[in-house]
Design brief:
Helix content of chain A: over 70%
Number of strands of chain A: 2
Structural class of chain A: mainly alpha
Largest sheet of chain A: 2 strands, antiparallel
Shape of chain A: globular
Distance between the termini of chain A: 9 Å
Oligomer: homodimer
Strand content of chain A: under 5%
Largest interface: A-B, 40 and 40 residues
Number of helices of chain A: 17
């Protein structure tokens, strides 16, 4: 990432939050109600469960996925005058699925940091993190069962299976520089975009939209999710740790194959290829290797090109929204798609 | 466990299998159909998933839980002449939930053996075991969603949450000799009996039994599950590793608090109490400690007394069945309850 790009980060990051703040504003008290549901439903007589869950859920995070459920529901006119609460319960369900996968991700990656704080596995041990993840996953299913819609259940249970498939696929591409960009995108679609898509698609069901509009919501979520993950993967080679609560170089240290590395490797000369093989495939890393990796990423414009791809997906997301009539909410969702990418520019 | 008890094991174990064989016989081709469903539904384009799942699912195991679903369905007259297949799909669902918890258990316990063979985490790594467990869990939910019954969904999703609660509770009692027998039973009810109960209770729903009979099925499964786990915990201090594919002393080495230890500790003199504190609470174990633990377990008749408790629960299980009219199937389920305990006598 160029120095200019880096200088721009703090402001872009603020804009990102502005876009989300506008969305939050438009969903009124729904996010507060969703937070109440989350707190109430993560409770258990087994006190370690709410203790650990509070650590990861209540400690923050942007609540991006439940926000999408709440906002797209309203975009479709739900609950309108009927005062329904289904979107709130489903938003909580989506956040529980997300949190369960975060807990298991951190165990799998042996990460010590999450959102700038100690991860749950670092504080409570990886055993507890695995099992509380299972609890939250099961609780998510209870929430969707309570909704009672067969269609909602099909969407969310399929998404849960797809997420797990994406995570396993990611494991098999790890340390493998021959991973194709298509397979990398399969990983991203599974581990990230499937839940974004489901979070939006259920709104169409709850609001009794047409099949066409419900599909459009799913496409919006899927494209937005891919854009979001591409930016995340770019930030792993660029982010300011203090600003974003992310450790730069985590993916590099684990030998995770992401688009910035694939781009830099595709354009590499013989010496550079040997560098990537040693560091990312064989994980033989020396103290100065991350700096060298960042230099190669910059040399091949790998961040900019990753962000360009992200911008294409953000564009697709916006196009999917064009099926809906103009409204403040559509505008805010549109901006959220833009700022997903801008947070890194 | 006394020498006489140990000598009896091989034959008792055969009887156990005879009881299950009789049940298998009575469910006709249903178990084969269930196995076909299991194999078909654990498939995925992400090849590591069927590879790992085959390792744990196809490698055997008694299929006790799905067998209970199949047998109790028939006990209730399902499918009768209607040729329904719901019990087969739900039996597969139950086995998937069980397998997912096994995968996560082995990661949490860092076990290298499962059913006498290398565990999935030992062969494929614990990352893959966590994530494939998540996949099987999600796939189980897809299977139950396809069933379409709101009542079935409520029973199985509640069971999944209860299992996770039981597992977390077990984690908090680990290395804690002040655990009460009541709390130990809470762990057993959660981690084992909840799924046994759900596996039977769904049959009542599918067969459209009365609420009273459906509850009786749940009680049968719950009591049987508790008996089963108590015997399992007894065998951990008594089993012949070659016969049962279980490593003797696993629970001891991990400092897991089970009834045999609670009984031996309750009757311990000062020296013995210090032994348990050092080995099970502080996990400071020396090569000869397992032998000493087994001697103390025998001195306090802790195996026999654990099996007596198991027999009480097996009796409750049989009593729950008395709500049903006499039939070959009721007899076979009755015998299965008896032999659950006899396998260790």
């Amino acid at each position: 990432m160029g120095a200019a790009l880096k200088r721009d980060l703090p402001q872009a990051h603020r804009s990102d939050e502005d876009a989300l703040a506008a969305l939050l504003n438009l969903v009124g008290g729904d996010m507060e109600a969703c937070n109440d549901t989350i707190l109430a439903r993560m409770d258990s007589p087994v006190t370690l469960i709410p203790e650990l869950a509070t650590h990861i859920i209540a400690a923050g995070g942007k609540r991006l996925r439940p926000l999408l459920t709440l906002a797209t529901s309203r975009l479709c006119g739900y609950p309108g005058d009927r005062g329904g609460k289904r979107h709130i319960q489903l938003a909580a369900c989506v956040e529980f699925i997300h949190t369960a996968t975060l807990l298991h991700d951190d165990v799998v990656d042996a990460s010590d940091l999450r959102r700038g704080s100690a991860s749950a596995n670092a504080v409570f041990g990886s055993k507890a993190a695995v099992l509380v993840g299972d609890f939250l996953f099961a609780r998510a299913f209870q929430l969707m069962v309570e909704d009672g819609s067969q269609e909602v259940l099909a969407i969310l249970s399929r998404a849960a299976a797809t997420i797990a498939e994406g995570e396993v696929l990611q494991l098999t591409t790890q340390n493998d520089l021959s991973t194709s960009e298509a397979n990398y995108l399969n990983v991203v679609e599974g581990k990230t975009a499937a839940l974004f898509a489901a979070a939006c698609e259920v709104s169409g069901v709850v609001a009794e939209c047409s099949a066409r509009l419900t599909r459009a919501l799913g496409n919006f979520g899927r494209s937005l999710g891919i854009a979001f993950q591409l930016v995340d993967d770019a930030l792993d080679y660029a982010a300011d740790q203090n600003t974003l609560g992310k450790v730069v170089g985590d993916d590099f240290r684990e030998g995770k194959i992401t688009l910035p590395v694939l781009i830099a490797h595709a354009g590499a000369d013989e010496t550079e290829r040997r560098f990537w093989q040693r560091t990312v495939e064989r994980l033989e890393q020396k103290p100065d290797d991350l700096r060298q990796a960042l230099a190669l990423i910059e040399k091949h414009h790998a961040i900019e090109r990753t962000l360009d791809r992200a911008a294409q997906f953000a564009h697709s997301a916006k196009r999917a929204l064009s099926e809906f009539p103009e409204s403040e909410l559509r505008e805010a969702l549109w901006n959220a798609a833009d700022y997903t990418v801008c947070r890194a520019r």
